[in-house]
């Protein structure tokens, strides 16, 4: 139920702002996983990586999306300068 609520919140904020780009209004009003999938659909040539401490990720058939289970307090499993944009 929590995932559904977060997805609905994301869709509401996206509808109100008519965009996925409304920072800094993001905070916890939207679902980061849903945002990531929306962006991956909009930019199919880009690579998107999602991380969370909880292994609850949406099912997707998008080839440009990968999810990792990791605790950011223990560091990230990526080399320095891996990413062009971090959200």
UniProtKB/TrEMBL annotation:
InterPro entries: SAM-dependent_MTases_sf. It comes from the Eukaryota. This is Methyltransferase type 11 domain-containing protein. It comes from Glomus cerebriforme.
């Amino acid at each position: 139920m929590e995932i559904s609520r977060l997805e609905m919140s994301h869709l509401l904020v996206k509808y109100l702002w008519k965009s996925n780009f409304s920072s800094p209004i993001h905070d916890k009003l939207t679902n980061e996983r849903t945002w990531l999938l929306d962006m991956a659909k909009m930019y199919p040539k880009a690579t998107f990586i999602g991380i969370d401490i909880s292994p609850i990720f949406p099912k997707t058939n998008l080839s440009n999306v990968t999810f990792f289970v990791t605790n950011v307090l223990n560091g990230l499993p990526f080399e320095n300068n891996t990413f062009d944009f971090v959200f």
